[in-house]
Amino acid sequence: IGGVRRDATGRVGRAVVNIIEGLKACCGKDRFTELFPFEMGGQPWVAACNGHVMAAIQTDDPEAIAAAPGSPIGKTETVLTSAAQGDPVSVAALRAWCNEAPHTKPCPDCNGTKRLTCSECKGTGRAVHEYDCEECDGGAVDVVLPGVIAGAVFNRVLLAKMLASAPGETVMMLRDGDRLNFEAPWWRGAIMRLREEPAGLSVFPLGAS
Questions:
Q1: Hey, CA dihedral for 20, 51, 177, 44, is it positive or negative?
Q2: How far is CA 117 from CA 26, 58, 111, 120, in A?
Q3: Would you tell me the crossing angle of helices 156-163 and 91-98 to the nearest 10 degrees?
Q4: What is the per-residue pLDDT across 52-105, written as a single tens digit (0 to 9) for each?
Q5: Of 6, 154, 169, 182, which residue has the fewest beta carbons closer than 10 angstroms?
Q6: How does strand 43-49 pair with strand 36-40?
Q7: CA distance 3 to 51
Q8: Residue 21: which H helix or E strand, with range?
């Protein structure tokens, strides 16, 4: 795997910038909030993780590395194992399956308003005041959208976040116990299964294009 490097002019290509931005979709909100660098196979990688899903690209580009100020997570390489012996899967078909239903709902704390009214002054001297809701992003929160793929249940909202950085049209997919691993040239992803029964859930049709 050659990895993501600068082009002949010494600049990072637009595709690389987009992949880095795509990785950020996998960052957590309370922990693992930043991209982080790590080594795998003797090569430098940049990754994102929220505790349930992870994605990474192999790159030695200084700008890409600089965009990853987070602390490395231990044993990342044992999560992002190779899926080269798995099945080829269409990225477009996966994304379409992930988007069968909305990924967010109005925040139950602020009812989608992004603001909360406090009935306690908390030292401000005011009887009532408003403050930004810290439980949502723009008035919305993610939902859990379960679906069946490779014989197990996975959250399609998180799968879509992982696929945000997937390059190319096809990825290799391999089930590894409770984890589903993906691989493409200089890119890898992994997602943990949900402990839910598959009955009645949407099933990804392997072989879809």
A1: positive
A2: 31, 46, 12, 9
A3: 140
A4: 999 999 998 888 889 999 998 888 889 999 999 999 999 999 999 999 999 999
A5: 169
A6: antiparallel
A7: 25
A8: helix 14-23
